Amino acid sequence: MHGSGFRLIGSLLLLGVFLFVSFFTPALARDKYPDPVMSLPPIQVIDNGQIRNISLPDAYDFHGNACPGATMAFMAVRYGLELLYDDEMPELEDLIIIARAPGGPMDLVDLIVKGNDPSKRTWPPAGITSSADKFFFPVFTKIYHGDGDSEPKRRTMAE
Prior knowledge:
This protein is an alpha+beta fold. The chain has two domains: 1-31; 35-152, no CATH class. The protein is 45% helix and 14% strand.
């Protein structure tokens, strides 16, 4: 009788854990990051005719943690897009964003340019290290001419 009693108690405990996780995890996920992080305006781009919003929590989740490098890159890229586009929303295909710092900054650029697919993540080549001189994020926009040629607009930010 002891064996079946322990199995019943174990099953009830597992059911309780399952119900707790099922009902309370979504509420806990909303509280995963502090209010200032949650209230920052997202980076917005047009990708294949659809508006994409990339928030700082999205960047953290894609990277795997709340990384200071991802935070700096997010703020720098968002500021650069404001400088280049004012109130307009950029087309993703018109952007060139460069990250020379591995980790969070490179992951943010991947999230913006390649989407939320970790299998498309860019791994830093040998020799790229995390150091203060690598933390600048030039953002360019392409200027289109009537003949179809394009060249980058030489206005950068966060250097």
